[in-house]
Structures are given as structure tokens and as C-alpha cells.
Amino acid sequence: MLHEKINNLNFEKLPYAYDALEPYIDAQTMELHYSKHHNGYFNKLQNAAKGTEVENMTLNDVFKNISKYPKGIRNNGGGHFNHNLFWSVMGPDKGGQPSGKLMEAINKHFGSFDEFKEKFEKAALGRFGSGWAWLIVKDDKSIAITDTPNQDNPLMDVVDENGMPILGIDVWEHAYYLKYQNRRPEYVSAFWNVVNWEEVSRRYEELI
Amino acid sequence: MRIVANIIIASLVAIGLNACNQQPENNKEKESEAITYEKDKQASDQSMKSTTEDVPDSEYSFGTLPYQFDDLEPYIDHKTMRLHYGKHHKGYYKKFLNAIENSDAQGRSIIEILKNVSQYSNGLRNNGGGYYNHWLFWHSLTPESGQKPGELLSTAIDDAFGSFDAFKETFNSAAASQFGSGWAWLILSDEGNLVVTSTPNQDNPVMDVSKINGMPILALDVWEHAYYLKYNNKRTSYIENFWKLVDWGKVDQRYKKAINQQEIFTP
Q1: So what CATH class is A100-207?
Q2: Rounded CA gap, A187 and A166, in Å?
Q3: Which of the four pLDDT bands, split at 50, 70 and 90, describes residue B145?
Q4: FRET label pair with B202: which of B21, B34, B193, B215, CA 20 to 30 Å apart?
């Protein structure tokens, strides 16, 4: 996805049903989030790219130099990539803990899985307004937690800390307001019940 | 006992109204709506009391909402108002008081703090903004719909934007295109012009960090929490309905104050 030409991208199917993440994420939120918000970003990306050099470029290349492109590409390109990653790192009957190399890296870097969770939650709660919190793999293969505003992500040249995201949580209010209203901390702690650690580990091992 | 009495009265009123409208088949539905609504209202009144009690005494007052939670229905729903005022706005206010406690901003007016916000912490910026912006928002709205700006402001709007419709279009576009969380504003700029602008998150045009500075006289909150329960992703419908609620009387007063360079904040 990241390495395909933008005009060849498809709006991929959600890998599970709208109600698959209940009770942690409700079906109505999933439906709006996927079919309105995400689809909106995808369509606006295609419109913004059409007829410009961007349509023949990959998201990866565009993100690297996003400061040189219009806001419409930044916001909607980010919106498409971020949501795509978000859907893939969640699933029904998931949660628990990672294993293997990713767990080793988490223990080594954060001390323990609990300390990692605490730092990730802090990033998700500390992001004021709309945005995302991420677990990323940096160029030197080390892992780090970071957060970005709006639809920015750690692949973009406009953010403080760069790397490849392998786990992301959407903390825009649209991601949780229908079920949790102002209680973002409840949403963030419920998120752990739907994290697809097999997929996050797969992404991690592919990068190291 | 009072709660029970209220529910019974509300139910009787609902039944009575239905009888007048000759729609007896709807009685049951209406009745249960009235009960749910009364319960919701009682619960929200309770929760408002408890949130007011745990705020310390302060020279910075929170201010009361100038209407009831359900007064802006159907354009802004009761539940959104209850959360927005009682949780979001109150949350900013409490965090603002905490942020100011150990800062040298203590004792300065909220306008002075915002004007020099780059000198202070992010906590003071976000929560001081949240405190002030929501106050201005509540006082930009009224259930007495269909108002129009007075002559002085109306002429100034025509001079600045060409027409009232052109102004609305500019304002709508600013509100719709503020990506992510933020606000749209009508301000009297420091240069003395009427200007439409928008700011991210809880920033506002009073703050020295904003690209356009001036005194806001009309505010629209476009954080998703302001409209998501009722409008979901349809921010433009929310913006369109906002115009049915604008309190032009208060906007007029603020415009006059801004021209006379008076501070605008009296919660």
C-alpha cells in the first residue's frame, strides 16, 4: 500500500464486521469511521492527487517530503494510511500480549509490557485535540512511542520523531465519542482488548 | 417525591398534548419519551451540582449557561450541551485553575494571559483557551432564533465582506476547513477590521501564537465533541444550523466593546 502508486490504490475492505470489536468499539462508530471518515480521506486523496505529479508517486515517497506538498495531500494521504494501519492492527478475540522478538524488544526498551502500555497510554491521552499515538520502529531498528496531531504520522518529514509505525491508536473524538464521550482514558484502556499482536509482531519482524 | 411528581406531570402534559392533537396511538411512545427525558434532566442536574462543588474558590469564575441544556434543540441536542458544558468546559476550567496556581499568571485577567500565552505552559494555553472559548461560544448562542445583526455591525459586515451572505459563506468555509479540532471566529482585528479566521485546538485570536490577532465577537466550536452525537461526520450540517442560533444581540454588544477597546469577558 505504502509502495504503490497513489492512483492505483484501492479502498480496501475492512478485515472484519462492523460489530466485531464490540463491546470495546461499537458497531455504529466502526461503520461511520470506516465508511464515512476513512472513505472520505481516500476519496479526497484521489481528488487532490489527480492531474498532479503525486498521482504517480507512492505514499511512502510523498510522506518523506510532505512539507513540499499541499495540505490536501498531507491530511488525506495521512488519513488514508493511518486508518488502514489502524484497522489491520485490531481484530475480534485479540488483546493479550505480544510474544517473540517484539516482546523482547518491548521488555528491553521499556522494562516491561506494563511500562510500555503506560507510556503508550500517556502519549494517547497527552495528545491534545485530534491525532494519533504510535509505536514505531526507527531507522536504527530501535522501537519508540510517539504521537502526532491530526492526520500526520511518523513517516512525514513534518513530525518530531520519524520511523515506521507498527501500532497506532486514533484519538480523534470521532473514534470514540459515541460510546465514550469525553472519557478518552476508558477508550484507550479498552483498546488493549482488540490489539492484534500477531499483526503488530509480523510488521515488526519484517522491519528488523 | 419531587422527581416522581415531575415525571407524572410531564407524562400528563405529554398525554394531554397528544389528546389535543388527536393522536392517541402515540400516547405510549410520548409518555415514555417524557419519562426518559425527565430522568435524564434530573440526572444531569445532579451531575452539574457535583461538578460545581469540587472547584476551589477562585477569582476566575466559571459562569452559568445562559439557557437550559435542551433550549437549543433540535439544532444542538440536550445531551451534547450537558456534556459540552458540564464535562468539557468544566474540565478546561478546572485544569486552567490548576495550571495557573503555580504560575506567575495568577491574578492577571484571562485576556492578559491569552495575549501573552507564549510565555506560559501548554497547560495554560490549552485550558485557558478552552475556558475562554467556550464561554464566548455559549454567549454566541440563543434559543430565540431568527435574530439579525444590528445596524452598526450589519453595515460593518457589508463593508468588510460585501454582503451578509458573503460573510456567512466565508465563515462557513473557515469552520468547515479547520482540519481536526478547532474554532471559527468573527473578530475585530488589531488593525480595526472585521475578519473571519480559524484556530486549531483551543487556540484563539487573542493569543499571541495565532497568525491573525484581534478580539473575537462570534465563536463556533468545530471540535467533534461539539456535534458528533447528533451530526456524526456531517460537520457542514452542524455549521448550517448554527446560524439559526446566533445571538446577534450579544455579538452587537461585543462589537461595540471591541471598537471601544474594552476587554470582553464577563462570566
Answers
A1: alpha beta
A2: 20
A3: confident
A4: B193
Distance from the Cα of B160 to chain A's closest Cα (Å) equals: 27
Q: Which residue of A has its CA nearest to B199?
A: A129
Q: Which of B83, B179, B224 sits opposite A150 (nearest CB)?
A: B179
Question: Tell me, what's the pLDDT at B59?
Answer: 76
Say whether pLDDT at B35 is over 70. Answer: no
Residues from chain A contacting residue B233 (CB–CB below 8 Å): 32, 36-37, 40, 174
CA–CA separation, A148 vs A130, rounded Å? Answer: 9
pLDDT of A95-152, one tens digit each? 999 999 999 999 999 999 999 999 999 999 999 999 999 999 999 999 999 999 999 9
| Alpha helices in chain A, H assignment, sequence order | 27-32, 39-49, 59-64, 71-88, 100-110, 113-126, 177-180, 184-191, 197-207
* DSSP strands (E only) in chain B: 182-189, 194-200, 214-221
Whether the complex's predicted ipTM surpasses the cut of 0.95 = yes
* pLDDT, tens only, A63-73: 999 999 999 99
B180 contacts A131? CB cut-off 8 A: yes
Element (H, E) at B154: helix B151-161
From A37, A181, A182, residue closest to B233, measured CB to CB: A37
Distance between CA atoms of A80 and A86, rounded to whole angstroms? 10
Domain borders along chain B are 1-21+28-37, 77-267
Fold of A26-88: Helix Hairpins (1.10.287)
The residue of chain B with its CA nearest to that of A131 is B180
Q: Is the pLDDT of residue B170 over 80?
A: yes
Q: Do B224 and A182 touch (CB under 8 A)?
A: no
- Report whether pLDDT(A174) > 50: yes
**Nearest Cβ partner for B83 among A71, A151, A181:** A181
Residue B46 has pLDDT above 80, yes or no: no
Architecture (CATH level 2) of domain B77-267: 3-Layer(bab) Sandwich (3.55)
- Interface residue ranges in chain A relative to chain B, Cβ cutoff 8 Å: 32, 36-37, 40, 71, 75, 128-131, 149-151, 172-174, 177-178, 181-182
Q: What does the domain layout of chain A look like in residue ranges?
A: 26-88, 100-207
- Interface touch B233/A40, C-beta < 8 Å: yes
Run of H or E residues at B249: helix B248-259
pLDDT at site B5: 39
Considering CB atoms only, which of B87, B179, B228 is closest to A173? B228
